[in-house]
UniProtKB/TrEMBL annotation:
Official protein name in the record: Phosphoribosylamine--glycine ligase
Alphabetized PANTHER family for the sequence: PHOSPHORIBOSYLAMINE--GLYCINE LIGASE, PHOSPHORIBOSYLAMINE--GLYCINE LIGASE, CHLOROPLASTIC
Species this protein is from: Agathobacter rectalis (strain ATCC 33656 / DSM 3377 / JCM 17463 / KCTC 5835 / VPI 0990)
SUPFAM superfamilies with a match to the protein in the record: Glutathione synthetase ATP-binding domain-like, PreATP-grasp domain, Rudiment single hybrid motif
Any one GO BP annotation for this protein: purine nucleobase biosynthetic process
Family in the record: Belongs to the GARS family.
Catalyzed chemical reaction(s): 5-phospho-beta-D-ribosylamine + glycine + ATP = N(1)-(5-phospho-beta-D-ribosyl)glycinamide + ADP + phosphate + H(+)
Cofactor: Mn(2+); Mg(2+)
Segments forming domain ATP-grasp: 107-313
């Protein structure tokens, strides 16, 4: 098979690595890819939102299967364009990707179908939002409705902070049109857990749990980011939690989307909060998480092409999804100053230290080749240093050991990824 992966980050690197393991695949392309992906796939200089060019490339190169990694093209309807051209494509259609594309839609869906989530109100008028906040309990959460690179969520501890948040989202449009509608949500407390799933429109198969670290600084301080590290499985995702979620959240979401005439095919990411009142949905994503993919996919035993094809063909019920009985930890090496302001273009050294080491992997998120052929930094999140081990503690120790192997100016990371493991 010839496979095309669309995207350019650490998630797409993890997908390409999983695809490269498939005995059914002999050629991988990635558009646009990055310097690390180039070792596994032929990178094609086409942007993820250039739908016509991507469809033409897939036709001209007889691509058998296309995998969409990123949220923007999914919400924009790229799968619809590929299917119109008679091409097989993994991911939800536009009318289903709204599950991530609009937080207001997803909150209303959960309310309608009694899927456990935080109490909320949606606003399209800043004055109405401010009026509501005068009577609200704090802390409270403000969310830009649309896509905001994982950064459109503000936790406000006081009325003054909330008023400033409304200005930021709805008036100053810090997150662009994503802030045309804003969700105001009750603040939930508990452990956060990420659960990825494969879906074929009617059947859902749950992957292993993971746990993200969204804040930029140690101790969960600083601004929200796209994710500073991850581990899998989460010790807090117990059999009891799994049973509850299967009964009231996972299949209920798939059935709700089907009833709304929006059957979902691809990956649903469930962001969960394990509250005192039981698990509740924080958010949905319509694709693999980043860096969740980097810790979950290395543990999957199945051929990823078999699973993804079953999703597209509607035969997921025939797949026995299995994961290794081990653990995986990913520590993100970022550019100092992320997620606000940072410099790029610094040479990265030390990649050779990963050669021949099965338990370690270096996923590229924001890298590129410079004019001299050196790999240099090209983003806020640069690399995902990942390691597997028999236990979470072992995987964590190995991942942090490997963070010392790679060096670049402006290197920044959190030092407490998976620290909760030690407290479990």
């Amino acid at each position: 098979m010839k496979v095309l992966v669309v995207g350019s980050g650490g998630r797409e690197h993890a997908i390409c690595r999983a695809v490269a393991k498939s005995s059914r695949v002999d050629k991988i392309y990635c558009a646009p890819g990055n310097a690390g992906i180039a070792a596994l796939a032929e990178c094609v200089p086409i942007g993820a939102m250039e739908f016509d060019k991507l469809v033409s490339f897939a036709k001209d190169n007889a691509i058998d299967f296309t995998i969409i990694g990123m949220d923007d093209p999914l919400v924009g309807g790229i799968v619809d364009e590929f299917e119109k051209a008679g091409l097989k494509c993994f991911g939800p259609k536009k009318n289903a990707a709204i599950l991530e594309g609009s937080k207001a839609f997803s909150k209303d869906l959960m309310k309608k179908y009694n899927i456990p989530t935080a109490a909320y109100e949606n606003f399209t008028d800043a004055k109405e939002a401010l009026k509501y906040l005068e009577t609200a309990k704090f802390p409270i959460v403000l969310k830009a409705d649309g896509l905001a690179l994982g950064k459109g969520v503000l936790i406000c501890n006081t009325l003054e902070e909330a008023k400033e948040g409304v200005r930021t989202i709805m008036e100053d449009k810090k997150f662009g049109t994503a802030g045309n509608t804003m969700v105001v949500e009750e603040f939930m407390t508990g452990r956060e857990v990420s659960v990825l799933s494969f879906v074929d429109g009617k059947t859902i198969k749950i992957m292993s749990s993971a746990q993200d670290h969204k804040r930029a600084g140690d101790g969960d301080t600083g601004l929200n980011t796209g994710g500073m590290g991850n581990f899998s499985p989460s010790p807090f995702y117990t059999n009891e939690v799994d049973d509850f979620c299967k009964k009231y959240i996972y299949q209920a979401t798939v059935d709700a989307m089907a009833k709304e005439g929006r059957p979902f095919t691809g990956v649903i990411f469930f962001g969960l909060m394990l509250t005192e009142d039981g698990p509740k949905v924080l958010e949905y994503n319509a694709r693999f998480g980043d860096p969740e993919a980097q810790v979950v996919l290395p543990r999957m035993k199945n051929d990823i092409i078999d699973v993804m094809e079953a999703c597209v063909d509607g035969t997921l019920d025939t797949i026995d999804l299995q994961f290794e009985d081990n653990a995986c930890v990913c520590v993100v090496l970022a550019s100092d100053g992320y997620p606000v302001k940072y410099e790029k273009g610094f040479k990265i050294t030390g990649f050779e230290k990963f050669d021949g080491k099965e338990d370690y992997y270096c996923y590229h998120a924001g890298t590129k080749f410079d004019a001299d052929g050196n790999i240099v930094t090209n983003g806020g999140r640069v690399l995902g240093i990942t390691a597997t081990g028999a236990t979470l503690k072992e995987a964590r120790a190995k991942a942090y050991e490997a963070t010392e192997w790679v060096q670049f100016d402006n290197k920044y990371m959190r030092h407490d990824i998976g620290k909760a493991i030690d407290e479990a």
